[in-house]
C-alpha cells in the first residue's frame, strides 16, 4: 500500500521549516499501518513561490466578501519556502526513507501554463491535481458557516456542474499526475439528484488525460462520511482502466495512513492488484 497524499501543516496552523525527523515519523506511522511508501504533497499555495507567480489571482473575480475571505486565506497561508521543502525531502530520500516528493496543485483557470513552468524546475515525483474552490468559493471549508451558507445561494446542481467542469479542465491541462479526492464536491454531504452523470464525466476526464485517480479515506473524516471516490465513481474509474493511488490526505501525524487496511480490503474485493507509483513523474505498478 501507499499513502500518496500527505500534508505537513494543518489547515489552520502556520508553516514551519520541514525537518527530516518529521518525515521519518510519517514513514514510521505509515509503516505501522502496512503502507510501504509515502508522498509528501503540501499545497502549492502554501509556498512563497506560488504567491510570486499568482499574486492577486482572485482579483479577476468581482469584489465580494467571499473574495476577501479567499484572498486573506490564500495570502495568510502562503509563507513557506518551496526550495527548503524540496531540499529536505531529497535529503530524506537519500537517507533511505521510502518517500516521494510531491505537491497538491489547485486548478487556476487561465494560469496553469504559468504554474507548470514553475513546477517544471523542481524534481517532483508526483503532482496531485485538485479543485478546492469554485471561482472564489472555497466550498470545502466545512467549519465556516459563512462558506457553507453559499450552498443555498449557488445550489447543489450548479455547484456539481461547475466543479465537474473545472475537474475536466484541470485534467485536460495534463499538469498533474493524479486527480486527488475526485468527487470532493460532496464533502458537505450535498448530492445532486443524478450524481452518475457527473461521475461519468469525472472518470472520463481522468481516462482521457491518461492520469491516475486517488482513493482517499479523508471523506470519512468529513460531514459526507464516505471515501473518495463514491462507490459508483470508483466502478466507473475501474471500468475505464484508470490507475489508482491510495491516500489519507493527513494534515498531521495522527491521520497518516488513516484506514489504509480498510482501503486495501475495499480495492482487493474489486479485483485491484496494483496501484500507480511515481518516480520523477514516471508511473509504475506497485503491489497493493
Automatic annotation (TrEMBL):
Catalytic activity reported: L-histidinol phosphate + H2O = L-histidinol + phosphate
Coiled coil: none
EC number: 3.1.3.15
Presence of the UniProt keyword Amino-acid biosynthesis in the record: yes
Keywords assigned: Amino-acid biosynthesis, Histidine biosynthesis, Hydrolase
Gene3D superfamilies according to UniProt: Metal-dependent hydrolases
Top EC class for this record: hydrolase
Domain PHP: residue ranges: 5-217
InterPro entries for the chain: Histidinol_P_phosphatase_HisJ, PHP_dom, Pol/histidinol_Pase-like
Pathway this chain belongs to: Amino-acid biosynthesis; L-histidine biosynthesis; L-histidine from 5-phospho-alpha-D-ribose 1-diphosphate: step 8/9
Recorded family membership: Belongs to the PHP hydrolase family. HisK subfamily.
Protein name as catalogued: Histidinol-phosphatase
Naturally occurring in which organism (per UniProt): Ferrimicrobium acidiphilum
